[in-house]
Specification:
It is a single chain. By secondary structure, this protein is an alpha/beta fold. The chain has 2 domains: 24-84 and 376-411, Urease, subunit C, domain 1; 86-374, TIM Barrel (Alpha-Beta Barrel). The chain contains 13 helices and 18 strands. It has helices at residues 2-14, 128-131, 164-167, 202-220, 229-233, 235-239, 251-263, 281-286, 309-319, 339-347, 353-358, 362-368, 415-424; strands at residues 31-39, 45-54, 57-63, 73-76, 81-84, 86-91, 138-143, 150-158, 168-178, 183-185, 196-198, 243-248, 269-273, 291-293, 324-326, 385-388, 400-405, 408-409. The strands form 3 sheets. Strands 1, 2, 3, 4, 5, 16, 17 and 18 form an 8-stranded mixed sheet that branches. The chain has an 8-stranded mixed sheet with strand order 6-7-8-9-12-13-14-15, sandwiched between helices. Strands 10-11 form a two-stranded antiparallel ribbon. Helix 9 (309-319) packs across helix 10 (339-347). The two termini are 43 Å apart.
Length: 431
């Protein structure tokens, strides 16, 4: 029986489908896109826009009525829309290919506190899951580990490369910490009451984080005879060159996490999840904590929550004056392609449509620390953008005709589009 399982696994892993991902060649000529409505990702919109770029950089963003020479390849995009590439934070994209095949899952390494484990070196740039992001405009992602207390170190990549070295935009940008829960849910599968009850180990688990942070800080101030990889990996947190992404949802957990981490040397803290962050917005503003809020297509967690809390949570935080981005860590990797539709959902909750767009473009870029080159359409920044037939935050309008990463024109074909074309013609001409 084992023999057949091994054969089946090998076939699954070796299957290449009907399309092969091939990274685009470096931009060789200037490109001008004119006539479309440009959504800049910073809240601004330009009707009948002209967007030009050369050598991977934007050279002009403005009105098509401007008398300026169009060089190179001119793309007529009248009636269409231009957007900066969408950015997906805190995902295990490229780390997991087939959940049921352990050999293809590098998202969770052995160990509870392992900040020195670098997710980037396990990133599979040719992943079919990664490939499927591009047709929806998701062109950049933060590849983050998961599991344990301190999961490891993330990096930011673009989604069109042969390998992780070519894909990397920002290497080892931050460390990811799962804060302990003060309450835990009963394990119904063992006969326990499925309700929530206090976590008796909360103080002990919190103290373990404090002790590790204190030891890592002391290590950085000393001249150790031997290198401690875990302590050494934490030094960027203390000097501000890396961000500490802390995962917490409850009001108490968020307050404890921010106070504890700030008191123990963390310079830049980003809250990920933040389900009850709307209750303590003044606290978060005072401590300058940005929030990567959970995806909107979700149900309320608790009986006394508003039925539409997940839908309106990003708007509540934006209205309170926080820097907010959207992520969907708790959803499957394939669902990351729905990132623009989460933003569209927030737009339906009363948030201005362009502000909703910022949640997955300019805001996410700013939170991740790549806003100097990505996230908005501005002269001098990377030409990472796409053209859509309609509203890219609406699944009916999100139909890409062109996409570019650093000026390179991408193929929008994936194994999924190839299979769709193949089977859509299966019964053609048959009665």
């Amino acid at each position: 029986m084992k023999k057949y399982i091994y054969i089946l696994t090998a076939l699954v892993l070796s299957y290449t489908g009907t399309a092969q991902q091939t990274p685009a060649a470096k931009q060789s000529e200037a490109i001008a896109i004119e006539g479309a409505t440009a959504h800049l990702g910073n809240g601004e919109v330009i009707e009948n826009a002209l967007v030009m770029f050369e050598d991977g950089k934007l050279t002009f963003v403005g009105s098509a009525n401007t008398k300026i020479a169009r060089a190179g390849n001119v793309i007529n995009a009248s009636g269409k829309h231009i957007y900066p590439g969408f950015i997906a934070p805190a995902k295990t994209l490229g780390l997991v290919e087939i959940n049921a095949v352990r050999a293809s899952d590098d998202a969770d390494e052995i160990g509870d506190i392992i900040p020195h484990v670098r997710s980037l070196i396990a990133y599979n740039a040719e992943s079919k899951v990664v490939e499927s992001m591009r047709p929806n405009g998701v062109l950049i992602g933060q590849i983050a580990p998961e599991g344990g207390r301190i999961s490891g170190t993330s990096s930011i990549v673009q989604f069109d490369a042969w390998n992780w070295e070519d894909a990397a935009i920002k290497v080892d940008d931050g460390i990811h910490l799962n804060w302990p829960n003060s309450f835990k849910q009963g394990r119904w599968w063992t006969g326990e009451d499925p309700g929530y009850k206090p976590n008796k180990a909360y103080a002990e688990q919190t103290e373990a984080v404090i002790t590790f942070m204190a030891n890592a800080l002391a290590y950085g101030k000393s001249t150790p005879k031997e290198v401690n990889p875990a302590f050494a990996a934490m030094q960027g947190i203390f000097d501000g060159t890396q961000k500490l992404y802390v995962y917490a949802d409850g009001e108490r957990e968020i307050i404890d996490a921010v106070n504890t981490l700030k008191a123990n040397g963390a310079e830049e803290v980003v809250l990920v999840g933040g389900y009850h962050a709307y209750k303590i917005t003044d606290f978060l503003k005072k401590n300058n904590i940005p929030v990567l809020v959970q995806f909107t297509h979700n149900l309320p967690k608790f009986d006394d929550d508003d039925y539409d809390l997940p839908y309106k949570l990003p708007k509540l935080l934006v209205d309170a004056g926080l820097l907010v981005g959207l992520q969907n860590r708790d959803a499957s990797n394939f669902q990351t392609r729905n990132l623009p539709f989460y933003a569209g959902q927030v737009g339906q909750q009363g948030l201005d449509k362009e502000k909703a767009l910022q949640l997955i473009t300019g805001n996410n870029a700013k939170i991740l620390g790549i806003d100097d080159a990505y996230g908005t359409l501005e002269v001098g920044k990377s030409a990472t953008l796409f053209v859509s037939k309609g509203d890219a935050l609406d699944m009916r309008g999100n139909q890409l005709t062109h996409a570019f990463i650093d000026g390179r024109m991408l193929s929008l074909e994936t194994h999924q589009t190839a299979l769709w074309k193949r089977y859509s013609e299966k019964y053609e001409g048959k009665k």
